[in-house]
Amino acid sequence: MAAADWQAIRGLLFDKDGTLIDFEASWQALFERFALEVAGGDAGHAARLLEQAGYDEAAGRFRAGSVIAAGTTVDLVELWQPDLDREARKAAVGHMDAQIVQTASSTAVAVCDLAPVLGGLAATGRFRLGVATNDAALSAERCLAQLGVRDMFDAVIGWDSVERAKPAPDMVHAFCQRCGLEPAEVAVIGDNMHDLEMAEAAGAGLRIGVLSGNSAHDDLAPLAHAVIEDISHLPRLAETQAAALPKEG
C-alpha cells in the first residue's frame, strides 16, 4: 500500500459484524433459534439449515463470505424458505429484523475496546466516521448505542438504507453523500470480501481487511491494501503510513 494514499483519506467507513462487534458472540445463539423456528423444532433439520447458511460446526463459526456472515436477512429467508410468496417472504424478513433489533439492544459484544480507538480517530479532526452493514440500520444503531459509541459515527447505513446491499457500491456512495466526501477520500474497513468488493466497486481510496471476523489473511489479501488484526491497529497503521510520507521543504 502506498503511504501517500493516506494523505487523501477523510472518511473511515467500518463494517459492523466482525469488524466492530464479535459476530459469533453477538449473534450465533439468535441464528440458531431462527434455524430451529424454520425447521419446525427439528434439531437435525435446523443443523442442516445452519450448515447451508455457512456454519462450520467443527470450527464453531460461520464461514467467510457465507450468507449469515456477509448477507442480509432477505438473503437468508430466500435461502431457507425459497418457496415463500412475496408477502410471506416480506413477513419472514420483518420477523427476523425485529428479533435482531431486540437482540442488538442486549447482546452486542465488541471486538476490542472501541471507545478509545474510535474516539482517538475522531479527535484528530481529520476523519468522518461511518458504519456500512448488511444488517438493518436500526439494529446497527442499537448495537452501537449499547456499546456506547453511536455518537462517534456521522452515518450508520444498513441494507435497508440503500437500493443495493454489499457488495454493490451504494453504501459507500451514501456515506459520501451524507458527509460531503468523494469515494477516493474514503477508507473501507471490513472482515469479509463483500466489504472490500463494495469498496472497489465504489472507487474507495483504501481497502483495509481485519482478522477479527470470519476471514483469514489469505482470504482478504488479494483485494486489501492492508490487513490488520483488528481495528485497534488502525490508528497505528495510519500513523506509520503518514510518517513514511516525504517531508516538504
% residues in beta strands: 5-15%
Report the CATH C-level class of the largest domain.
Alpha Beta
Mean pLDDT: 92
Q: Give the strand line-up of the largest sheet.
A: 5-4-1-6-7-8
Instruction: Give the proportion of residues in helices.
Output: 40-55%
The succession of helices and strands, N to C, reads: EHHEEHHHHEHEHEHEHEH
CATH architecture of the largest domain: 3-Layer(aba) Sandwich
**How is the main sheet built?**
6 strands, parallel
Query: Oligomeric status of the shown chains?
Result: single chain
How many domain regions? 2
CATH names the topology of the largest domain as: Rossmann fold
Q: C-alpha Rg, in Å? A: 18 Å
* Low-pLDDT residue spans: none
Ends distance: 24 Å
Number of strands: 8
Sheet/helix structural class: alpha/beta
Task: Work out the helix count.
Answer: 11
> What is the general shape?
globular
Instruction: Supply the CATH superfamily name of the largest domain.
Output: HAD superfamily/HAD-like
Catalytic activity: 2-phosphoglycolate + H2O = glycolate + phosphate
GO molecular function: phosphoglycolate phosphatase activity
Keywords: Hydrolase
Family: Belongs to the HAD-like hydrolase superfamily. CbbY/CbbZ/Gph/YieH family.
Task: Please characterize this protein's 3D structure.
The chain is an alpha/beta fold. It has two domains: 3-22 and 111-243, HAD superfamily/HAD-like (Rossmann fold, 3-Layer(aba) Sandwich); 23-107, no CATH class. 46% of the residues lie in helices and 12% in strands. It is built from eleven helices and eight strands. The protein has helices at 23-38, 43-52, 67-70, 73-80, 86-107, 114-123, 137-146, 170-179, 193-202, 217-220, 234-243, and strands spanning 11-14, 55-56, 61-62, 128-132, 155-157, 186-190, 206-210, 226-228. Strands 5-4-1-6-7-8 form a six-stranded parallel beta sheet, with helices on both faces. It has a two-stranded antiparallel sheet with strand order 2-3. Helix 1 packs across helix 2 (43-52). The longest helix has 22 residues, at 86-107. The protein is globular, with a radius of gyration of 18 Å. The relative contact order is 0.18. The mean pLDDT is 92.
